[in-house]
Amino acid sequence: MQRVSKIIIMLIISILTFVSILVVNENYKLKERADSVKHSITLSQIQWDLVQLEGAIAYQIEIHWILPSHVSEKVGDVLQDIMVIREVNSGISVLSKKDEEYLDSLYHRLSDYSHDNMVEPLNELSQNEIEKLIKLRRALRDVGWGVGYSNSGHWDSFIEKLIKLLPQI
């Protein structure tokens, strides 16, 4: 009887060990998938739209700001990207508190620029708004977001650039 009890206890310990290994493995896979989502979002969305924003400002400078609505649409695109990341993060918590603060700061600072309200286009900018956008373009290019620059799809690279950008805008 004692021998049967020892065998049953060893069997239960073995099963619990096996189940624990499976749970740890699944948690690791889930974390890897969440990190993959985080990296994909920056490459495909925010960084791309920041580059397009820089390009739109450059084009408006070239054509003497005759289509300012194009720039305001691009600012709106970046703001929308940030909202999407916030929403994704609320569901799967892929961002650190510090990263959330950086994104919130970018959102609030870009909200001060003329941006698309998705109802009516912005057809005029004041000289002050134009100068502010030109400064934004310089800041974007200074950190490496602009037409002709290559960008990493890695989240850490995005955050490093964002940290450099925020004091300039």
The total count of strands amounts to 0
Please give the oligomerization state of what you see.
single chain
> Rounded to an integer, what's the Rg over CA atoms?
24 Å
Question: SSE order in H/E notation?
Answer: HHHHH
The percent range for strand residues is: under 5%
Structure class: mainly alpha
Instruction: Report the span from N to C terminus.
Output: 77 Å
Summarize the SSE layout with pairings.
Elements: H1 2-62, H2 68-92, H3 97-111, H4 127-143, H5 155-165
Helix pairs in contact: 1-2, 1-4, 2-3, 4-5
Short synopsis of the structure:
The protein is mostly helical and 169 residues long. It has helices at 2-62, 68-92, 97-111, 127-143, 155-165.
Could you name the key traits of this structure?
single chain, 169 residues, mainly alpha, 5 helices, rod-shaped
Structure description:
This protein has 5 helices and no strands. The protein is an all-alpha fold. α1 runs antiparallel to α2 (68-92) and α1 packs across α4 (127-143). The protein has helices at residues 2-62, 68-92, 97-111, 127-143, 155-165. Helix content is 76%, strand content 0%. It is rod-shaped and about 95 Å long.
